[in-house]
Here is the input.
Amino acid sequence: NPSWYVFKPGTPVQSSSASGSPPCGAVVVDKSNSLLPQLSANPSCPSRFQHVQRLPNHAADLTVAYLYYRDTEYLERHVKHWITLPRDLLKRISILVVDDGSPMDHSARAVLEKMRACDVRAAVVRVGEDIRWNIGGARNLAFALAPTELVLLVDADQLVTQSLLEWSLRHSKYALARCDIFLDFPRKFPNGRQHRVHPATMLTSRSSYWRVGGCDEDFVGNYGFTDVHFAARLRQTPDCQRISSERPIMKHVANFTDAMALEPAPPLIHLERVHSSHDIAANKAILRQKFQGQLPWSTDYLRFSWEWVFGADGLAQC
Here is the structure.
């Protein structure tokens, strides 16, 4: 169903405050229908949510979901780019910005309110807490709230060109026909110099993302290995495949009588930023323990509160 799922937060609770375990995830994945898994309220923490409300999709075909944290300059560049896109293309797209707990003076909402991007259907959901390295949680929130079945997930420092949006829409039948996830998107710098493929950008369906199991939020709080663990989950999910967007191959499409020649994806534009080194030791140890069976792969998601702060009706705001 292409409707927009909105989980109304109640009071966050701890799964076991005495043991010091992390906050209880709001939802679990119901895989009783393996082809179309759904999110359900987590029975371990019933006070987290009051009810589920669906918002209208407004006939979009693709959600472009951006993960955002204090990136005001980048978001301004995105907005300036969005308003140059053809109106017919904008009608097929919803933009979802997940603001991962930015301070109010660097919030995504402030940027969109200031720039007033008419004809652009953009919404902002803000995580209530400023959680260190909440990468997996923010990705899970994007796929929980996306108004369309087809989702293109990108980081805030990656600019999505018109060509890549059109490519994503052309490949929608393939992405929606089976449990395949397009990864390994090519990218280049603004000066045209090639960059390595992006490890996290993906094009897939909401149901495929949750069938794989989403991102493991046990890695939240420290840096690294969220992508590695997601790829491992993908490899272990029956009938789900990783497709290289940089060098896709000819595939037979389930439910179609013909084969479809997949085109290489146009590159993202990597907006340059200074990257500092990060300590990966904690998450490296967690990954090793999960692979060795010493820690379970998490099954609860969205261990934080959030609220809609801009465009919650899914319409352009001017």
Summary: The CA atoms of residues 40 and 171 lie 29 Å apart.
